[in-house]
TrEMBL record:
The gene is pdhA. CDD domains: TPP_E1_PDC_ADC_BCADC. This is Pyruvate dehydrogenase (Acetyl-transferring) E1 component subunit alpha. It comes from Agromyces atrinae. GO terms for biological process: branched-chain amino acid catabolic process. Residues 53-323 form the Dehydrogenase E1 component domain.
Length: 372
């Protein structure tokens, strides 16, 4: 469905059919070709999706507070992008491998990463927070777009091994302006790699609006690479799920890559070091608040008669408990031994790194001499 009113059109990228199964006020809409992909999602599954989104929103708020209190160096909030992340990641099989950027806390949540393990890097106590092979999710990527190349390489490896797992690359609208993403799309198309390109178009690359970066809907770019694409309402968890399931199935059955543009909005700052009031208006924010992914699903469940005060209280209690646990676990994270920063850079001994380690050891020893 294309945007219908002027204000909506002003914020969304132009053209391109927008797949939607839940309207902004929570009414179920029919989308031929997509409905059957979520036919198994009944009230219990919807409640579980609602709980996931609510808990990760609460965890995100707690992490933002921890950063403001000096407990984290930086934090990139996901506020507003819960449906895009939960809807897609809850569609994955455990063996499907995720290559994300730095804002995919909800994807990590679905993969089974403990919330405190996401915080390790942002607190500076670890280079990464989990074992990528155990979790089937690579460490967070800060270099914009390069994880799409890793995802394609991994997917080609899966094919070479005769497997049917899929790799999924998560990236932002800004990343589509990077050469790495174009290279990844070329390779994926050429080798029919079983990979899903999941672009969260949250409307901004820091302060750069997507409408300045692209004259077309981002999903429209994919066809130039020979990659089929879908443009989905990223604040509609059901629509995201349907689109992701279609893409995963295509990849698993030899159909190659798919590009999904999930049209969403980052309601918070780019990171806690950013002030979004300098580049976007209150009106724009208000418009997107009306499309909030969680209240939309809540309205839908309420209309179905499956969400009442006790459900709201249970979700809030779970979210608060997770946040409290996160807070104490974060504050208790032990500082690492300083020289351990060199431990996992290379698998084999490396002369330059050894020199750096030695230099840093002598630098640290210098403090002891001053103190003695
Ligand atoms: C290769 C590269 N160039 C520039 C940067 C600096 N940078 C960090 S975040 C960002 C914007 C990314 O925007 P987008 O891809 O839309 O993702 P979002 O943060 O909105 O999720 C930029 C330019 C970087 N990390 N890597």
């Amino acid at each position: 469905m294309t945007p219908t009113n002027d204000s909506e059109a002003a914020v969304l990228t132009e053209t391109g059919e927008l797949i939607q199964l839940l309207s902004s006020d929570g009414r179920r809409r029919s989308a031929p070709g997509y409905d059957q992909w979520v036919a198994d999602i009944g009230p219990a599954e919807l409640l579980a999706l609602h709980s996931d989104m609510s808990v990760v929103r609460r965890i995100d708020a707690e992490a933002t507070a921890l950063q403001r209190q000096g407990q984290l160096g930086l934090w990139p909030p996901l506020l507003g992008q819960e449906a895009a992340q939960i809807g897609s990641a809850r569609s994955l099989r455990p063996g499907d491998f995720v290559f994300s950027s730095y804002r995919e806390h909800a994807v990590a949540w679905c993969k089974g990463v403990r919330a405190v393990d996401v915080l390790r890097m942002w607190r500076g106590t670890g280079l990464s927070g989990w074992d990528p092979y155990e979790i089937t999710m690579a460490p967070l990527q800060i270099i914009i777009g390069s994880q799409t190349l890793h995802a394609v390489g991994y997917a080609m490896g899966v094919t070479a091994d005769g497997g049917d797992d899929v790799s999924v690359a998560y990236f932002g609208d800004g990343a589509t302006s990077e050469g790495d993403v174009s290279e990844a799309l070329v390779f994926a198309a050429s080798f029919r790699a079983p990979v899903v390109f999941f672009c969260q178009n949250n409307q901004y690359a820091i302060s750069e609006p997507v409408r300045v970066q692209s004259r077309h809907a981002l999903a429209d770019r994919a066809s130039g690479f020979g990659v089929p694409s879908m443009r989905v309402d990223g604040n509609d968890v059901l629509a995201v799920m349907a689109a992701t399931r279609i893409a995963l199935e295509r990849a698993r059955t030899g159909g190659g890559p798919t590009f999904i543009e999930a049209v969403t909005y980052r309601m918070g700052p780019h990171t806690t070091a950013d002030d979004p009031t300098r580049y976007r208006s209150e009106d724009e924010l208000a418009l997107w608040r009306e499309r909030d992914p969680i209240s939309r699903l809540e309205a839908h469940l309420t209309a179905l008669g499956h969400f009442g005060e006790s459900d709201a209280a249970a979700v809030a209690a779970r979210a608060d408990a997770e946040a409290a646990e996160l807070r104490s676990a974060c504050i208790e994270l032990a500082d690492p031994e300083p020289l351990s920063v060199f431990d996992h850079v290379y698998a084999e001994p490396h002369a330059t790194l050894e020199r750096q380690r030695d230099h840093y050891r002598r630098y640290l020893d210098g403090f002891e001499e001053v103190g003695s």
